[in-house]
Fold:
Amino acid sequence: MAAHHVKQLKCLQLVEATAMA
Structure:
């Protein structure tokens, strides 16, 4: 359960970084 949440957070961070770049 926690691992899935971490994966979701990582994906969100990646999308945010891409949008910022």
User: Anything to note?
Assistant: The mean pLDDT is 92. The two ends are 31 Å apart (CA to CA). The chain has one helix and no strands.
